[in-house]
Design brief:
The chain is built from three helices and nine strands. The two termini are about 25 Å apart. The relative contact order is 0.25. The model has no long low-confidence stretch (mean pLDDT about 95).
Length: about 150
């Protein structure tokens, strides 16, 4: 289980190797994604708080990357953070997520991306519930639920 210290270490010193890589051209991504999915995942956009399909969803299953189908989060570790975005405490595997320092908008944050295809997912914060203390704040447009 990753902690905030682990996340900071990966952000500053390099990420774990993914199980595989998926790379496509901008045109290929545009052809397979909706305009909003493309804006969020490939151009590092965000959706309005409370507007996402999975904001209040509690269905059982795994949340996978909308771009490459890589499993990212399990519904059992999803929680209501009150932030307006789906929130999770851990990724399904330590190497499923890529972490990068984000200094946009005058803040210092940690961006989270799919480690397989570099799709922007959202950000991670150190104010989540135990035992990890992490809150992965994820855009609904960047994930899809694969129901159990």
């Amino acid at each position: 289980m990753l902690t905030w210290n682990d996340v900071m270490h990966l952000t500053m010193r390099g990420n774990l190797q993914p199980d595989k890589r998926v790379e496509k051209t901008i045109e290929e991504w545009q052809a397979m994604l909706s305009p909003e999915q493309f804006r969020i995942t490939r151009q590092k956009g965000t959706e309005r708080p409370g507007s996402g399909e999975y904001c209040h969803s509690h269905e059982a299953g795994k949340y996978a990357c909308i771009c490459c189908d890589t499993p990212l989060f399990d519904s059992s570790i999803k929680f209501e953070s009150g932030t307006g975005w789906p929130s999770f405490t851990q990724a399904v595997k330590d190497n499923a997520i890529k972490y990068e320092k984000d200094t946009n908008f005058g803040m210092i944050r940690v961006e989270v991306m799919c480690n397989t295809c570099d799709a922007h997912l959202g950000h991670v914060f150190p104010d989540g519930p135990p035992p990890s203390g992490l809150r992965y704040c994820v855009n609904s447009e960047s994930i899809k639920l694969i129901k159990e």
